[in-house]
Every structure is written in structure tokens, then in C-alpha cells.
Amino acid sequence: MTQVNQVLASLATGAVTVHDLTAPLSKDTPTLVLPEPFSNLIDFSLDEVSAYNEPGPFWKHHNIHTGEHIGTHIDAPVHWISGREGKDVSQIDPQRLVGPAVVLDFSAEAAADPDYLISVEDLKSWQKTHGEFPANAWLLFRTGWDQYGEDRAAFLNLDENGSHTPGFTAECAKYIAEELDVSGVGVETVGIDAGNAALLDPPFPMHYFLLGNDKYGITSLKNLDKLPAFGAMIVVAPLPIVGGTGAPTRVLALM
């Protein structure tokens, strides 16, 4: 029996289970809000074309309207100025979209401080306790933020001082991008950077360093609490939009 057949047999018996890490996509999906003078993407919406009626008597179908970076989505290198000569979402190597999932739990820190920034020291301490990150891994950061996924105000956590959601220090972003042999990072928040990451140097350092080093980011994940620190396999399945800077993405974990 081949290794692939072993996985298929385990799926059939339930020995391997599949967890959906994707947030449902609808008009109510919380989306990033950029301050003026910057432009924002449109929210997701459906436009009915037919519904078992005269325009289409035997079928129902819609046009969809959405920005690339809405809901659970992937950021491709060309999304950021540092990756402008890099890959669009259709050019990402499929081998990089399947790999080990490593779940790092910082939910206690985020509960105590919604502006918590994960540091290099945090990651090195985590590895001393749990072990090294495997090659081609996706680092998935649990902050508990998915609990707010159906409450736009709580999810974005905006006030007169900006958006208060957890993220990473600039040094940590550089460390992940330049020193770790990983494919990408996944978060539960609306973006891969902290809510107030515009104030860091460089601004939005996860975008700057990660995408500038041919690594990828996925956002608005759910159900990370169902996964172990090690032992799950992730499947990241974006729409392969030619020229796309990102795309809505289905993210699955096999465990």
C-alpha cells in the first residue's frame, strides 16, 4: 500500500479526520477597514442570476462580488511592495500549499492584551518547550480571536486609537521570514499583521518581510483549538486568480 493509499484508507475508516479552518463567507464577514485616504475593498455579496425560474428554469446560480482579501484568504507576494516582483496567487507552488501544521497558542496573552505582539523570544521559547518547526510548515497562531468572527465590531476592535488586535513585532516578522524554513503563517485575525501595525517599523512588518521573502499568509482562521501543536497536515486551497494578489481560500487540516 502506498503512502497516499494509507491516508485514503485512514480517511475512510475515520482514523484521519478533516477539520475545516475556514470562516464562512457572506455579506456579514468582517473585513479590513483602512483609514482615509486609503481605499477599501468591497464586501462579499451574491447577485442572483436565476433561481429555477425563467432566466434559468432548472438551475440556480449567482455572480459573486468580492475583494481578493476578504474573509479567510491568502496573501501572495505581489500583494506587497516588497514582493512586487514575486508570485501572484496563481503561481504559488502547490507543494507549498500542503504541509505540516504547527499550532502555537497565544490565546492567554491576547486575552490579557488585545494589542499583544508575539516576539522572537516567544517563538524560541515555544520551540524549546515543544520542538523545532518542521520544514515547509505553516505556523498557525491561535489567539482566540475567532470567537469574535460573527461580531464585526469585536473582530476589528476599532476605537479612536486604531484597531486593537494581536500580531507580531517587526523583529519577529523578520525572523520568521528570513530565518525559518516555513511556507507561511496563519492567523485568526482579519490580517496577518497586528491591528496597529502601521505604527511599527517598517509598517505592517509581517506583510513586508513575509511576502518579500516568498512566504505566504492566511487570515481569519477558525477551529485552531481543535488541532494539536504538532501532527496535523494543512491543505491551503486558494482560487488561482491570474494576476491575483490574494484570494478567498478554503483551509483544511488532516489530523
Automatic annotation (TrEMBL):
Pfam families referenced in this protein's UniProt entry, alphabetically: Cyclase
Q: Which InterPro entries match?
A: KFase/CYL, KFase_sf
Coiled coil regions in record = none
Q: Report what the protein is called.
A: Kynurenine formamidase
